[in-house]
Structures are given as C-alpha cells and as structure tokens.
Design a protein that fits this description.
The protein has 372 residues and is an alpha+beta fold. Among the domains are: 86-152, no CATH class; 154-223, LysM domain (Membrane-bound Lytic Murein Transglycosylase D, Chain A); 236-283 and 318-371, Beta Barrel (L,D-transpeptidase catalytic domain-like), CATH 2.40.440. It is built from ten helices and 14 strands. It is globular and about 150 Å long.
Amino acid sequence: MARSRRSSSNIIYGLLTVALAVLLVWLWWSSGQTKRRTAKPKAVPPIAAKPLPPAAPAVIIPAVPPPALPANRPVVPPASVPPGNSWPRPVQNLFEAQLALVDQGISSGSLDGVTGSQTRAALAAFQRLEHLPPTGELDALTKEKLQLAESPYTTYTITSDDLARLQPIASTWLGKSQQTALDYENILELVAEKSFAHPNFLRRLNPGVNWTNMIAGTTVQVPNASYPEPDSKAAFVVIHLTAKTLEAFDTDTNLLAHFPCSIARRVEKRPVGQLHVAVVAPHPNYTFDPDVFPESPEAQELKRKLILPPGPNNPVGVAWIGLDKPGYGIHGTPRPEEVGRTESHGCFRLANWNAEYLLRLVTVGTPVYVVE
C-alpha cells in the first residue's frame, strides 16, 4: 500500500515537472515574439548628398516709372513680341548685341548686324565697363552680360508728315543755300536715322517693301533702338584719334557714351590737347566758307560765304557743338553710315543720332581731350 502511494506521488511530481517545463518554454517563446514585434529597424547609414550650386541672387526691379520716350520713337505693340520670349534675356547674335549696346549709350555705328572695327570697339568699351577682358569679340560671357530688355524689333508707321518732309537736295553749294531746309531726301533715309539703322539692313528686314513708292499708313519693321535717358551731365569728353572714337564720362569716370567718330584727313588739322565746349546748337544752319574747300571748283568760283539752312542733310547734321579753337567742333553728318570710315576737313563727325545724344550730355565749358 505504501509502495502504491509513493508511485502515485512520483507520477504527480513528474506531471508537475512537465507542466512547469511547458510553461517555461511558452513564456520564453512568447517573450521572443514580443521582442521581434517591437524591435526597431536597423538604422540605414545616410547617403551623402551632393552639394547644391549656390542660388543666384534675386533680381530686384526698382519700382520707378520708366523714362519718357523721346519724340517720334516707334512704340512696341504687344503683337510684335514673339510668343515664349521673356525679357530681359541675353543677346543671341551680333545684331542683338549692337542693339543692346545702344541701351548702354554705346554705338557701333549704323545698326547692321555685321562685324567690323566699330562693332569691335563698341564691344571692347562695354567689356571694360563690365571689367571683362576687352577683346572686342562677342564671346559667351559678353553675350550673358549684354541683356535685351524688350523685343529687338518694332514697327514704324509712315505718316503724311514724314512724306511732307521729303525733298531733293541740290548738288551745289549755291543750290543748297537757296533751299528752305536740308531735310530728308527719301523715306528710307528718314526711317533709317530714326531707328539708328543702316539703309541696307532695313531693306533686308523688309524685303516686300517698295521704298521708292511709299504711302502714308505703310508699316515697316525696324530695330527697337533708343538711348537711355541721361541722369547726369558729362564731366569730360575724350576723342581718340587713332581709334576714331569719342567717349563721354561722368565725374566718377563712368562711361556715359561711346561713339564712332570721323577725324581730319590732314594730320596738321587734328587739334591734339585740351579744348572746351564753347557753344551748343541743336538744328544749326551752316556757314559755307570757300576757303575751307580748296578742292572744290565751285567754292573757288563763288569766292563768297553762303548760309545753308538747317536739316539732317546740312553739312553739320542736326547738332553743332562748337569748341574753343576757331573753326573746330563736334557735329552730325548727312551720311551716318560713313562715320569713322571717311575723313573730315578738321571737325569731328558723328552720326546724327549720336550728335543729338551728345548734345544732351555736354554744356558750355565741358573739357574735351583730343588724344592720339
């Protein structure tokens, strides 16, 4: 009987031992599952990001009203702006570069889209202004710096007043002196001077236009050219004889204007040194002196002075800036496309539109330095 009780006790102890073992195994398994459910994912090492280029500085456009447009300047109609273009933008070709230079007060001569010594001189002037190497070439950096503020082309509508101005110009000095004005001879000449353009460039730009039979209301495409409104007067002017350029500077020696310039044919007629502006005259008449034109048979035959009326075809164009050396001055010319390529009797010739702009920059007393 005692053996039977011991046997039963052993069985109970065995069962309890098994149950305890099962319980421990279950607790261990349950704990492992909880850890796996709550375990955080392993940290992934960050990928090194490439440094971003520095952001371009914000362009702040000052909220100021635009300067008043000069009289008779063609206005850009909204329809003339090509779709998809935004302004300002860098120039894309040589013509656009010439046009953008005008907006800086820098002239390459008559706008024509053709490279040459005057265009290279104008580009070099701009490059010096921007502290770039003055190569005179339209390189990538210069293109980026030269910005077009608006469409390079606009339209000009011929008016009845334009047509009424046209008149033939006499071929003799006496004949010119007897005219009421020395105005434009034809409409192509008028439109070319108003848009600072070479007549041949306008012909290429308007292949379907008959320039010899123009009527009022005809619309033509022209360069959208105008000089900036001057915000200061020139402190001094420098004429470079070798380069055949004229430049105006303010009191801080900032460039205000750069123009091609014709100089005297004879070296002894070139007044090197310091001069001063003595008189400023818009739309001047011209006193013909036969002694100044010894090569002219008519002048030697006349043997008397003549007064020629004002006008763009006057020998001194639309502006006269007299200097304090008798007989010398800076003035316009009837043939702006020849400026810098032909020589004068002694004065300094500019395109009419450049002479008009210089007239707004100088005053009586402004120093003019003529250097080699």
